[in-house]
Amino acid sequence: MIKRVEVPVEADVVVLFGATGDLAKKKLFPALYQMAFKGALDADVVGVASTKWNHEQFVANAFDAIRSHVAEVDEKILVELDAKLSLVVGNYEDPKVYQDLALALADKKAPVIYLAIPPSLFEQVTQGLAAVGLTDHCRLVVEKPFGRDLESAELLQEALERVLPEERIFRIDHYLGKESVEDILIFRFANSIWEPLWNRRYINSIQITMSEDFGIEGRGAFYDGVGAIRDVLQNHLLQVVSLIAMEPPSDLSSQFMEDEKIKVFRAIDPLKKEDVVRGQYVGYLDEPGVAPGSRTETYAAVKLFVNNWRWAGVPFYLRTGKYLTETTLEVVVEFKHPPQLLFTGSQETSPNILRFRLGKNDGVDIELLAKAPGDNLETLPVQLNVEFSAALGERQEAYERLLRAAMSGDHLRFTRIDSVLESWRILENVIHDETQVYPYFKGTWGPEKVDDLIPQGWIDL
Ligand code: BG6
User: Which is the closest atom of ligand 1 to the Cα of 219?
Assistant: First the structure.
């Protein structure tokens, strides 16, 4: 039975499970620093970890992390942060760690407990928290992937719901914290010029690429049990699909937003074997932590359709991979040709393109045709570009926004369980299927086999 407790809106403490881990180092401590720098960290920070560090070691490591990820660090803010930080050390299997944590939080009314730990530990840790009464009033933040497939996600949800209600569960997909990704909504629904074109009559295809020119960076033990489909496609890329394809929500409440996204997911049939190409970079099997002969994919490309009035027949191509040619995150909207090709030149080969650049230097590019100089009525492609940081100023980091949102109980940038389950349903056949994994060389765009999926080829990035 879940105890219903009135939880104050603003969190008074953030608890980080996995406080000595990779995510804490790269993302969470820098985010906490930024909040403190802006005067927006009105809470203590309690780390929980099995590494036997004392307070000084913990703080020194947190500060190292901050110094290596923040351009200019204000030492005064670090002093303030030091006063807020503490560490509880213990093994997650041992009930004592939860008792120690409960003691450390004795005077706290609204803890946010962030599980920055491998998903396989979520259930155990949540049970530990429940045993000492912490789930009666905490908000729980869980990292992706939520489950490994449809069934395990359902089971995990059941386990969480036994001890705390959905309104206090915050599922992270950090792409929803990216301002560049949120901009898709503004672009589509704050500008009236796109809506008449945003459908199957004018759009030929949507191509989404999330590529990285680096590998698994020492995360072999985690990554090998996950792979590109579960790591990126099921969550980050499908969320981008939903923002591109959704109908306008009635308002911006998390409920209406999620309602619209879920309609998109429901309109996507479960992918079949032939809709997917999996790849593995040559050299992956030598990475530390990777099982001998592993068939885990480090590259995945899929073709899917959103079967509704707006999108029927328009292919959505998604690809992601490690050690590809470049690091980029882009959505390319390819428009259809005009009904009559009147001019000579590049008209046939250069469709209008709208490109959302969502990674570093995010912005929008539009590719149009213009008259080539000279006597003839000949076309040449031209580009209109805007770089948002130059035009509008610097963006905030996703994790900073997500931590702030969880601390004030705002669900807008988190995924709801029904949409997570829908995304697993779409991928169910292909994650359990022993489809072939094609090798590819580092620094390429992945296995050539992908040409079968997208015969016309990807539009250049
Ligand atoms: C994470 C994945 O969720 O996203 C990583 O686990 C990936 O494998 C990362 O590198 C990419 O995030 P970003 O914000 O750099 O696009």
Answer: 8
Query: CB of 231 closer than 6 A to ligand 1?
Result: yes
Q: 122: which 2 tokens?
A: 């979520």
Q: Which two tokens stand for residue 159?
A: 């386990």
Q: How confident is the model at residue 135 (pLDDT cuts 50, 70, 90)?
A: very high
Q: Return the structure tokens found at 168.
A: 């206090």
Taking the model in full, what pTM does it have? 0.95
Closest CA to 371 of 351, 347, 355: 347
Q: How confident is the model at residue 455 (pLDDT cuts 50, 70, 90)?
A: confident
Sheet of 13-17, strands arranged across? 85-89, 44-49, 13-17, 111-115, 139-142, 169-171
pLDDT, tens digit, 9 for 90 and up, residues 201-218: 999 999 999 999 999 988
Using DSSP's 3-state secondary structure scheme, residue 409 falls into coil
Residue 212 in contact with ligand 1 by CB distance below 6 A: yes
Q: Please indicate whether residue 236 is annotated as part of the active site.
A: yes
Is 311 exposed, middle or buried, given 0-12, 13-18 or 19+ CB atoms closer than 10 A?
Answer: buried
| 212 within 8 A of 206, measured Cβ to Cβ | no
Phi-psi region of 115 (alpha: psi -120 to 50; beta: other; left: phi over 0): beta
pLDDT of residue 250: 93
Atom of ligand 1 nearest to the CA of 231: 6
Secondary structure (H, E, C), 319-388: EEECCECCCEEEEEEEECCCCCCCCEECCCCCCCEEEEECCCCCEEEEEEEEECCCCCCEEEEEEEEEEH
- Measured in Å, residue 230 CA sits from the centre of ligand 1 at 12
Residue 3 confidence (pLDDT) above 80: no
Q: Which atom of ligand 1 is least distant from the CA of 359?
A: 16
For tokens 């490109």, the residue is 355
Q: pLDDT at position 6, please? A: 67
Write down the pLDDT at residue 398. Answer: 96
Between strands 378-387 and 437-440, the pairing is unpaired
Interval 152-171: pLDDT, tens: 999 999 999 999 999 999 99
**Rounded to whole angstroms, how far apart are CA atoms 330 and 358?**
6
Phi, psi (degrees; rounded to nearest 5) at 105: -105, 15
- Please say whether the beta carbons of 16 and 24 come within 8 A: yes
DSSP 146-201: -SSSHHHHHHHHHHHHHHS-GGGEEE--GGGG-HHHHHHHHHHHS-TTTGGGSSTT
Catalytic residue among 55, 236, 411, 432: 236
Q: 32 falls in which pLDDT band (50, 70, 90)? A: very high
CA distance 446 to 204: 23
- Return the residue whose CA atom lies nearest to atom 4 of ligand 1: 232
